[in-house]
Amino acid sequence: MLKLPELKILVVDDFMMIRILLRASLNELGVTEIEEAQDGDEAWAKLQKAATSDRVYDFIFSDWHMPGLNGYQLLQKVRGNPRLQDIPFFMVSAESEPRHIMDAIRAGADEFVTKPFVPRALVEKMTHFLNKKNKTA
């Protein structure tokens, strides 16, 4: 299993302050390899480039509502690409309607974090996910 500082993470959100908050939370865990995208289109371009490299991302944190390609559409594209489909995908969104949360989970989101969130809660979800994944590996 990767140690947290060794993770390569993509943070996708159209609000710079959310990207800064996520980056700061991940930096507290020792993660330094963090790339950002301001929308799904930019994220998809980065993901396609990563898919042709030796190393893809270890996690994606994506907002749902963004201009252009939204987070839900990005999730579907990631799950439909054999090289990217296994990347843990955390939807981080103000969308709190149970139907939308279930849609994201059914489409393959590994976690759904509702904004506003406490950074520590996000870190706990990520740690829990990694521990669970490590036990099943």
CATH domain topology: Rossmann fold
Outline type: globular
Helix-strand sequence: EHEHEHEHEH
How many distinct helices? 5
The portion of residues assigned to helices is 40-55%
- State the secondary-structure class: alpha/beta
CATH architecture designation: 3-Layer(aba) Sandwich
Mean pLDDT: 89
Side by side, the strands of the main sheet go 2-1-3-4-5
Q: Outline the biggest β-sheet.
A: 5 strands, parallel
End-to-end separation in angstroms reads 9 Å
Quick structural summary:
The protein has 137 residues and is an alpha/beta fold.
Structure explained in plain terms:
The structure is a single chain. This protein has one domain (4-136): Rossmann fold (3-Layer(aba) Sandwich). The chain is built from five helices and five strands; from the N terminus they run E-H-E-H-E-H-E-H-E-H. Strands 2-1-3-4-5 form a five-stranded parallel sheet, with helices on both faces. The protein is 45% helix and 17% strand. Helix 1 links the parallel strand 1 and strand 2. It has helices spanning 16-28, 40-51, 71-79, 98-107, 119-136, and strands spanning 8-12, 33-37, 59-62, 89-93, 111-114.
Main attributes of the structure:
alpha/beta; 5 strands; 45% helix
Question: Helices and strands in order, then pairings?
Answer:
Blueprint lengths: L7 E5 L3 H13 L4 E5 L2 H12 L7 E4 L8 H9 L9 E5 L4 H10 L3 E4 L4 H18 L1
Parallel strand pairs: 1-2, 1-3, 3-4, 4-5
